[in-house]
């Protein structure tokens, strides 16, 4: 068999390298170097092979041999600079890159590396010039478009908060970051061109983020989906990409929801004991108001400045305003079946006492429930027992509440004066087919809030017994029938019917609150008492801000 020539062996080496059999390629090039040790191109091929094998220290040694044999080899100077950037060797990468450019001014990749070095050193104008030169030399150099996009993006960052005034070219993100729209558009153009030349998931991920900031949320979602399509399900980065994608959902409101939940997360990380305090209650009003502001369209810094304060009067005003606002935006009722044994004795005894008294009036127990929709407002788990009357048109609920903890000194003061109480309430309800509701309870005059229109609520004194309460409620039903002769009381004799009515009552209450502008002046005066003159303007302003944020 004829012996192969050096050229044929070199071609065989190149074939193995292209096919991915790098170890075999190294064997072939080593054999050639053994025969031709002074040939710089062979040492250059060996350096490339070692780099492909991920052996940087050996690669650097081989590059040194190349430069010793051929000091004017521009590619070798460039590779030594790349190795230096990766931490291999002590030579200055910029010096080596400039040497490569001096030897070969048309080496586009050297211009690209110089741009990266200059950009990292905050010499952006010089970096931009180097990138323009790189693309002039090689218009298909996708990495140069990516680097120029990075340069545009850095230039598009204008600052945070109120450092930069609003304007037609300014984009304000949820976090408060200000971007130049023009700069982001330039970034987008270069990233898209880079992807035309080379499909790179990391570059597409950058494009997705830029599209999100530009408000092109559908296009951003498509880009995120393209990245996820090639990301393995067990890749740790996948969860991060999915979180980024979630920001673009619902026209970009996903990012607002994420930021709002991040604010609210702190409220979930405190102990049950702390949650039951008045201090936490007021802090929660501020945080939830700020979260609502973010959801409604404010940036984080705007919302925090409006709804989080260290001023005591502001704290009180925000707390009062939040609770008034919440009355007009009550959560959908969610009563979860529970077991009475879970609750403290004072709650159990109240439920059992009311059961005996109402049982003598013909009521039967429908079930025991935890009002999960009221978790924010209550100091802790609260037992609600629901009943149905023999007339099938009246239902009742009994509950006894643990007040929010005011602190030891305040508790002692209230206890000594007989003002530390656990309200024991019984409430009766009837609904009519004309949309009217009758509610009769013995909650007393503690609440300043009243209702008119569809919801007719009568709060009797706390001393009124369940039997007296039932008698009074029946009188009100008869009067309603006389005043509304065409109205028929609806059946409320099953859990499903009672829960459906709770939803309708909640909707009617919210509609009434919204129809009066959330709170009437007499209600606010009763609520604030002697603090009315000082706090009312602040409460009104916070209510205005909350309504504006909610849109």
Question: What does this protein look like?
Answer:
59% of the residues lie in helices and 9% in strands. The protein has helices at 6-19, 22-35, 40-52, 56-69, 74-85, 93-103, 108-120, 124-137, 142-156, 181-197, 201-213, 217-229, 237-247, 253-268, 272-275, 278-296, 300-307, 312-327, 345-359, 408-416, 466-483, 495-515, 521-528, 532-550, and strands at 157-160, 170-172, 177-180, 335-337, 364-371, 384-388, 395-400, 424-431, 437-441, 455-459. It is built from 24 helices and 10 strands. The strands form 2 sheets. It has a 7-stranded mixed sheet with strand order 4-5-6-7-8-9-10, with helices on both faces. It has a 3-stranded antiparallel sheet with strand order 1-3-2. It is an alpha+beta fold. The relative contact order is 0.05. The longest helix has 21 residues, at 495-515. A hairpin with a 5-residue loop joins strand 8 and strand 9 (437-441). The N and C termini lie far apart (87 Å). Helix 16 packs across helix 18 (312-327). Mean pLDDT is 91; it is low at 405-420. The protein has 4 domains: 6-105, Tetratricopeptide repeat domain (Serine Threonine Protein Phosphatase 5, Tetratricopeptide repeat), CATH 1.25.40.10; 157-257, Alpha Horseshoe (Serine Threonine Protein Phosphatase 5, Tetratricopeptide repeat), CATH 1.25.40; 263-328 and 527-551, no CATH class; 335-516, no CATH class.
Keywords:
Serine Threonine Protein Phosphatase 5, Tetratricopeptide repeat; 10 strands; 551 residues; 7-stranded mixed sheet; alpha+beta; 59% helix; 3-stranded antiparallel sheet; 4 domains
